[in-house]
């Protein structure tokens, strides 16, 4: 009988999954002898009892774990932080992350060099424009106009003042600037 039971347990008949035809599985119990069925029922009861015991042991262990964590001052937030830190450490250790990080670093360096190069080109172009004869001539005309309109006002000033002076001079009747009205009552 034990040999028969062992053979029946070692059969490779597929166990029906959820949603499969259970009627086919019921036919398999018809081929078992009464003694084999009784032995399987005892085995089933034993396995169910072991599962119940293991569930109780697991619950007790989880309760003990929670008590230890409480005594150590470990709370859910700290655990979450630790899990995130561990997860991040695991991610950064992967070759994919290392390759991506290296590629992004190289791209950043190239972009930085490109921006620096563009900045240098723009600076050079602005210097070229400032040093060009056309700009020099324009600058002299603005200074001359400013000195004519502003009188004894010191050279320089902001561009807005120069534009206002130019606009006033081109209007034909120069209006006194606030500094002039204070100086000449």
Q: Can you tell me about this structure?
A:
By secondary structure, the chain is mainly alpha-helical. It has 8 helices and no strands.
How much strand content do the residues show?
A: under 5%
**What class would the helix/strand composition place it in?**
mainly alpha
Identify low-pLDDT runs.
none
Estimated helix fraction: over 70%
The main β sheet shows up as: none
Number of strands: 0
Total number of helical segments? Answer: 8
User: How far apart, in Å, are the first and last alpha carbons?
Assistant: 130 Å
How does the overall form come out from the CA principal axes? rod-shaped
Topology at a glance:
Elements: H1 2-9, H2 22-30, H3 34-72, H4 76-92, H5 95-131, H6 133-150, H7 159-170, H8 178-183
Helix pairs in contact: 6-7
Protein name: Tumor protein D52
Keywords: Coiled coil
Family: Belongs to the TPD52 family.
Can you summarize this structure?
With 185 residues, the chain is mainly alpha-helical. 79% of the residues lie in helices and 0% in strands. One of its GO terms (biological process) is B cell differentiation.
Main attributes of the structure:
79% helix; 185 residues; mainly alpha
